[in-house]
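Usage

Read records sequentially. Each one opens with the input sequence:
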Amino acid sequence: MKNPVIAEQGKPSIAEGMLKFSCLSENHFNTLAQSGTILPQLSISKRKITVSGNGTEICNIRQLQGWAKRKTITQKMLLSLIDVAKKKGKAEQVKAYWNAYHCLNKTYSSEGRLYGKYCKNRFCTVCLCIRKAEILNKYLPVLRTWENPYFVTLTIKSVYANKLNYTITRGMIRGLKIIIEKYKKRNQRGKGNKLMGIKSLECNFNPATKTYNPHFHLIVNSKETADILISEWLRLWKNKWTNKAAQNSRKVENLERDLIECVKYGTKIFTEPDLNKHARQKVPHHIYVSALDNILTAMKQHRLFDRFGFKLPKSEKKVKSTQLNQYNEWIFDSKQCDWINTENEKVLAGYKLPIELGILLENNIDLLLQ
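and closes with the structure output:
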């Protein structure tokens, strides 16, 4: 995602644009309509089907190609994750991976709109893209009311795989909750302000040391809150588990950009490869699937993105159902990296897999158990 810029007067911001065209409920899609595409004529009347939501505007070929790219990456990665999870005896995780693999396998188009069901899993890149837009829509208006927000990073020393789940659950998440609750109670007794902010949980893997580094990225409402969090974090973990130099705090200069960064961190555990970055560095990009499975397993029961110290305005989600009797049916073909019309075999997006990405997905996925 390109860095956003602050909206010019009279023009919508990137987040507002995403709100207008992105999926804002669990059961329907909207897209960033930028260019048109001509679809085949609707077929003759068929058996009636019921679809949920308002559907996606199907006039944006660029958006459809983005979905095709993410769908291709997701399916390839998930097949590798399924193999690794089977070797580890994780039957429940295998089932979850298959569920994400089939996300948007079948879609229907009618009267210029596209309908489909999506899995809402954090290891589906299509659903993650939609989730980012939802978060921007919900949180940006609230964060804009904060006078002096800060971006904070809280981390600890890296751990091995056998300690990862305990470290995240009993250490990272529980530790931050203790700090937040401590100051909430102080505020209730009239002894200071409660802490207020948003947080996202991320975990990196170091293939050289085979260690994992879970950490939080936060946007908080003031420098005071940022200083308190770092001070209490260091006091909680002591020098044995962390150090002051590893923590970071800086003033937010571009709120929209930093919120997108925070959301990106929350979903970074499963994202598309950054080919341009590695092309510049001349370093082969490897995807360590077993390590990714360990991270996904450790984070399974936890929110990657959440808020504390404030409430969001209430919003009503209206989901409607529509019956279709004239429509085109599209099935995703992993070999063609696109949705194919079941009647005339025409493609929906016209996506072509780049050679570099194809090589990476075919040759650079590391299946060794970590």
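Summary fields computed downstream for this record:
- The CA atoms of residues 99 and 333 lie 17 Å apart.
- The radius of gyration is 22 Å.
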